[in-house]
Design goal:
This protein is mainly β.
Length: 757
């Protein structure tokens, strides 16, 4: 409550200060000045001159114009070096399957923010944030900034061991207007987007948008629907003063795609999925699993020792409802600038699985198993920036309180069902496996100094942050699978330093070092109480140290960057679960040693003539475990490659605009990925290509702007494994039985009509 009052008081103080400052200021509000500065980009950039870290950005052109409308901005990042993004759907929006890796670090060890508001790890399970596609509609983004390896020191994240992705929303248009976009395409896809801008009125502007999307799954039964509203209001005055409010409301329903294994794909095909609405086959499998009868003939293609009862289930789905609001202010204090943001996020959700491991009744061997989520979090970020001689100084703080509930419930089923709704709201569970309550407090402070030397040819920055994250867990119902207690990750000195030297007006070299710490999160509590009590005193939080060295160059027709990196990842924590994913049982958590990563990134953009842009990127990543570990015997993982991470990736994308026409073609190669810690099983490499063409009619019959576009995803109709590790990884799986893979979507087409009034 104290922290909440502080947040409210800060927001009110900012608003009061804004009003007083406006009353005393006779300066005419700027109506054409873009206060976003570098946060508004049109295209992709692989250089960031003067920055002491590897930073690359994508803008509106890559996020909106070259992708199928509604695609995740993470999908656009996939063309940059060091980035690996996977999803089972053509938009990168189906959350169970979406993953992004940077330099060998998975999504749970990265940091994500929207306008400085922390998005947590954007994981499927609701613990600390939300996926960016639920936080903002892609059409309302201005740019996305990627920092592989070492994010900005003040980034509001307690998990950014391997880099950060920072999303920035677009400001309202200075001219009043309406935008409308309609998409139709494969699998009965229908997506409607509308946005109304107020235009500028004495320094005030705002927009309100709404989008509805509905598509059938590309295989199996079910659809995926979402509704989302965004509001942004900005008030600007004087010399750089502004207040902005951003609000988001999102509702999403998704029928799941079935997780595959190497063996199930070979035996049952790429289109193998959940059984819904085939209730009788699901009942037959459930009975056979419990020793009552035989498995259906369709499963005879699987080996005799394959766990046929887990080859598929009747149905699965996910439901999420989010509300996000952030009030931000940037104030010119006369020699200093104060930036501050207060935010609040609420989420309610449910993950569903029709499970044969718990019967509804003596005659119905399947029940509905739900994981029910509740999250409320609020926080403040602030930074004071000022200059002393050649020193740019920044000091800041971040504080967040989060309250999370997670529970697992079982509900009776009477037979076939074909609807997706929040079961918890309509029925009472007949069994509750666990009900956990978590209170997490994050406190971070940092200070950084940037020096400009040798007539600005040399930039040196150095600083440090202090981070403390405390999580208290309480078991609200008796359980043997989850523990209660307290875990704290804390470090008083986490340094970061870097230097950039301009060789001339078009070339620079840079070097950087960063040390980071990750919070424990709720993972340590997914063990038995005895295991937790035995482990908590010896568990250390995960840490990383990253070194980068690079060269950047740019000219009238090109941008180029080359970077090398070395990362040491210490105290890697590994969760092992001795049961199928659909079953609730206690896991074990162990420190399994270190990981070392080294590699190189290359990127080159060539623009030989007006309208033509060609981006090529190449990544090499050698990430290996350094230690063996014990888990019912020795697991020989030393010198084995990190799971899910390709050693090489290559991307090439070309776009051309002429006389109202715009066309783009892109291809991405992803190398082989191991799916066991001992590297005895892997998924093969693959190429995927996407293409698009559009025509801009200009002003037509009272419409200011009118355009039509056609996008084709997976142009060559490649069948491949997109996502790995959806149900975690195992130490050994030489036969390829672990169902932890997602098939990529086949070729699909989408037509979009866009108008602006």
């Amino acid at each position: 409550m104290t922290f909440a009052r502080t947040a409210l008081a800060t927001a009110l103080a900012l608003s009061l200060y804004a009003g007083l400052a406006r009353a005393d200021d006779d300066t005419t509000p700027a109506t054409t000045t873009d206060s976003r500065d570098a946060k508004q980009l049109e295209a992709v950039s692989v250089i960031a001159p003067g920055e002491t870290r590897q930073i690359q950005s994508i803008g509106v052109d890559e996020i909106v114009r070259q992708q199928t409308p509604g695609s995740s901005p993470l999908k656009a990042l996939d063309k940059l070096p060091g980035v690996q993004f996977q999803a089972a759907d053509p938009w990168g929006a189906y959350e169970w399957s979406t993953q992004i890796n940077l330099h060998g670090f998975d999504q749970s060890r990265l940091g994500f923010t929207l306008d400085g508001i922390p998005l947590g790890t954007m994981g499927y399970g609701v613990t600390d944030g939300l996926q960016v596609t639920r936080a903002i509609t892609s059409e309302n983004l201005a740019t996305v900034e990627l920092a592989q390896g070492a994010g900005a020191l003040g980034t509001a994240s307690n998990t950014n061991l391997g880099g950060t992705v920072q999303f920035y929303s677009a400001d309202p248009d200075m001219k009043a207007g309406v935008r409308v976009s309609q998409v139709l395409g494969s699998d009965s896809t229908r997506r409607t987007f509308a946005r109304v801008d107020s235009g500028d009125h004495g320094g005030f502007s705002m927009y309100l948008s709404f989008v509805h999307a509905d598509t059938d799954k590309w295989k199996g039964f079910g659809d995926q629907k979402s509704n989302q509203a965004n509001l942004k209001a900005v008030y600007q005055w004087g010399d750089g003063n502004r207040i902005s409010l951003f609000a988001d409301g999102s509702k999403r329903k998704e029928y799941d795609y079935m997780d595959l294994s190497l063996t199930s794909q070979r035996a049952l095909g790429w289109d193998w999925d959940y059984l819904q609405p085939d209730w009788n086959t699901a009942v037959q499998i459930a009975n056979a699993l419990n020793g009552k009868g035989d498995y259906p003939a369709v499963l005879n293609a699987l080996p005799a020792d394959y766990g046929k009862g887990d080859a598929t289930y009747y149905a699965g789905g996910g439901i999420r409802r989010d509300g996000l609001a952030g009030l931000s202010g940037s104030f010119n204090l006369g020699g200093a600038t104060l930036d501050a943001t207060g935010y609040y996020h609420a989420d309610r959700g449910e993950g569903q699985w029709a499970t044969p491991y718990q019967a509804s009744s003596p005659t119905v061997p399947i029940s509905m198993r739900t994981t029910d989520y509740g999250l409320d979090r609020y926080g403040i970020t602030s930074a004071l920036k000022f200059n002393v001689a050649n020193n740019d100084v920044e000091i800041g703080v971040w504080g967040e309180d989060a309250n999370t509930n997670q529970e697992r419930n079982f509900f009776p089923l009477g037979g076939q069902y074909t609807s997706l709704y929040v079961v918890y709201n309509d029925q009472a569970p007949f069994m509750r496996a666990f009900l956990q309550h978590y209170e997490t407090k994050t406190r971070m402070a940092y200070a950084e100094d940037t020096l400009h030397l040798l007539d600005d040819a040399l930039t040196v920055n150095f600083g440090a942050k202090s981070l403390r994250v405390t999580t208290d867990a309480t078991s609200l119902v008796p359980t043997t699978s989850y523990a209660q207690g307290r875990m704290r990750a804390s470090k008083g000195f986490l340094p970061q330093a870097g230097a950039d030297y301009k060789l001339d007006a078009n070339q620079d070299i840079y070097a950087s070092y960063a040390k980071n710490l990750s919070a424990f999160g709720i993972t340590p509590f997914s063990t038995s109480q005895q295991a937790f009590d035995d482990a908590k005193s010896r568990l250390k939080p995960e840490e990383s140290q990253t070194w980068q060295l690079g060269y950047r160059a740019h000219g009238d027709t090109f941008e180029a960057s080359v970077g090398v990196f070395y990362t040491r990842f210490e105290n890697r924590l590994l969760v092992t679960t001795p049961c199928p994913a659909v079953v609730t049982c206690a896991s074990s958590l162990n420190n399994v040693g270190d990981v070392k990563s080294r590699g190189a990134d290359l990127a080159f953009i060539w623009k030989p003539v007006h309208g033509l842009s060609w981006l090529n990127s190449f990544s090499y990543n050698h990430s290996t475990y350094q230690d063996d570990y014990q888990s019912s015997g020795l697991i020989p993982t030393a010198d084995k490659y990190v799971v899910g991470v390709p050693k090489t990736m290559f991307s090439s994308s070309v776009s051309y605009e002429i006389a109202g026409w715009r066309a783009n073609l892109e291809g991405k190669y992803t190398g082989r990925r191991y799916i066991t810690y001992t590297n005895d099983s892997s998924v093969p490499s693959y190429w995927v290509m996407n293409a698009g063409v559009a025509y801009d009619f200009g002003a037509v019959a009272g419409v200011d702007e009118l355009s039509i576009g056609l996008n084709a995803t997976n142009l060559l109709d490649k069948r491949y494994f997109a996502t790995t590790g959806t149900n975690g990884y195992v130490a050994f799986d030489p036969n390829g039985y672990n169902q932890t893979l997602m098939a990529g979507a086949p070729r699909q087409y989408f037509v979009s009509l866009n108008a602006k009034f």
